[in-house]
Amino acid sequence: MKTSRFIMLTFLSVSLVFLSSCKDDPVEIVSPYIGEYTILKATLTENLTLMTNEIGAMTLVAGLDITPMIQTALLGAIECEPESSLIELREDFSLYLGCVGTMDELDGGTWEEQSETVVILNLNSTAIPASSTGIVLTVTDVTLVGNILSGETTVPISRDMLVGVLAGMSGGQLTLNMEATPVAVPITFEIELEKQI
Asked: Model-level pTM?
């Protein structure tokens, strides 16, 4: 009797070792891009020509700081100072807009990490009220160094928004030629986002 219990105990012990060692749980990879970000800087990477009523063509040269314009275009749906507005990339691939220091948040769409260097932001019409379908931003050459996420993208800026941008840049001296300007003007720029820690 003791021998059969000993054999059974040995058999169960060996079985447990084999069964537990066969289980291979996949390692869950979490994106390094998950987190809350503020727009730190946006710089034109291609010249942008706007048609004005007063002087005709006006070229904004590559290298120009367009941070306030991009903060307003991408984060204007949340009531917050532009420099305090947040883009939150969540682990479930949802994208929310918020404001530093408040609990206010807005469902802004979704995001996906297409590769280590390409991130796609699917901003819905709640996030971008000027667009009935929202916009898709493909950010390329993405890097995350320390808490700075950077990359390049193209954003369609509405003609109505450009009216205010041109007026602000010229101190009210220039107005946009609405007939010569498309409904949306693509603007290519480098963006730097600062991860909130």
From this structure: 0.77
